[in-house]
Amino acid sequence: MGEISIDILYVITDLELGGVPLHLQRLVRAMRARGLEAAVVSLVPAGPVGKMLEADGVTVYSCEGRGGWDFRVIARLAKIIQAIQPGLVHSLLFHANLATRWAATTVGYSTSRVLCEIQTVEVERRWHLWVDRVTYDGCRFTIGNSPSVIEHLAVHARIPRDRLRLVRGGIDPAPIQAAKPIDRSSIGMPHDSAMVLWVGRLDPVKGLSILIESFRLIHEEANAHLCLAGVGTIREQLERQVRGLQLVHCVHFLGPRTDVAALLQAADVFVFPSRTEGLPNALLEAMAAACPIVTTDVPGCRDLIMNGQTGLIVPYGDTPSLAAAMRRLLRDRAFAARLGAKASEVARTEWNIRQTYEAYAALYDEARDA
After folding, report:
1. How far apart are CA 322 and CA 294, in angstroms?
2. Which of 170, 208, 324, 362 has the highest count of CB atoms within 10 angstroms of its CB?
3. d(Cα 300, Cα 296) in Å, to the nearest integer?
4. Which pLDDT value is given to residue 2?
5. What is the DSSP letter of 191?
6. Closest Cα to residue 366, out of 170, 168, 163, 171?
7. For residue 322, how many other CB atoms are within 10 A of its CB?
8. φ and ψ at 181, to 5 degrees?
9. What share of the chain is helix, strand, coil (3-state, %, to 5)?
10. What pLDDT, on a 0 to 100 scale, did the predictor assign at position 370?
11. Which residue positions in the chain have pLDDT lower than 50?
């Protein structure tokens, strides 16, 4: 370690397939294209995204952690930081942020060159906010990827606003807009049925049991099928719910997909009924695809969607309202198309990934000048 000068050492909790690890892979590519040498550390054994990074020629280290509370990762991370002496350290996700603050302090690495990033509005593990409040001084800035995340950290974690920095998330809309729609028969759907799509992690915070219950109210009249793309801990629970509601014939669990853009191009409606988010990439991708959207009035989602202009927003947990919004978009295709077209324009102009990378580069310059 340390033979090559590393401008930025990225630290992340894991490198499994998911929104933040994939965001990190793209960020590393963008910074290397700007001439910055990067390396990545995973607190646990590197997963599929680690292999993707290595295929790009990026050095990936692992602290070989065995869970969220394996404190041995702190000493291992400290050893890596001490050996590499990177220009900056940028960590992402709660456990990586905490380990980085402690590890940097342990080896005397300047906290003015440490950046920590949070990409969610935490509502389930509120003790995370307390930990962030008492440890934020272990880094120069805490980064949030949406206005809602920044406001939540300022109000509920009580991190001083001058120690917070907003780097708005974004996407590259071009490959999404260029994708060809998937053949619906390949996922078990009749060609004459409407396709309602959700994409993400099968997790309780995503509101999927509410989505399935809402879909039950409309599927027959709308001649619709619901497709759930992703993996997660509650799949079996959701499958039991689908069987209990006798919806097996029209609810499809698609598992992990590498063709999300093609799914979005085939969908008639994209539904995203989360309890909370930071800045959901799946919602941004649906916007870019001009897919008519129904989502919930919660942080992250309402940063992206303007009700009645770029999609429809309903209260979280309101099954009848969610069903009514889906029904409206499936019935009024002209209205749905207008919403989708406006959402695509907003994604292209206001949430373009080029702006995100420019903001990161400017923030790195600010931290290096400390």
Report:
1. 8
2. 208
3. 9
4. 45
5. T
6. 163
7. 27
8. -60, 145
9. 50, 20, 35
10. 65
11. 1-2
Q: Is the separation of the CB atoms in 311 and 292 below 8 Å?
A: yes
- Give SS3 for 222: helix
Task: List the structure tokens of 343.
Answer: 């959402």
Side chain identity at residue 221, one-letter code: E
Exposure on the CB side of residue 196, measured as CA atoms within 13 A: 30
Q: Which residues contact 324 (CB under 8 A, 6 or more apart)?
A: 314
Which domains, and CATH codes, for the chain? 8-169+352-368 (3.40.50.2000), 173-350 (3.40.50.2000)
Contact yes or no for 158/133 (Cβ under 8 A): yes
Report pTM: 0.86
Judging by beta carbons within 10 Å of its beta carbon (0-12, 13-18, 19+), is residue 102 exposed, middle or buried? middle
Distance from C-alpha of 178 to C-alpha of 176, rounded to nearest angstrom: 5
Residue with tokens 């399935």: 212
**Dihedral sign, Cα of residue 106, residue 107, residue 113, residue 119:** negative
* Rounded-to-integer distance, Cα 279 and Cα 277, Å: 6
Residue 120, beta-bridge partner list: 278
pLDDT tens column, 288-333: 999 999 999 999 999 999 999 999 999 999 999 999 999 999 999 9
CB 182, CB 263: distance < 8 Å: yes
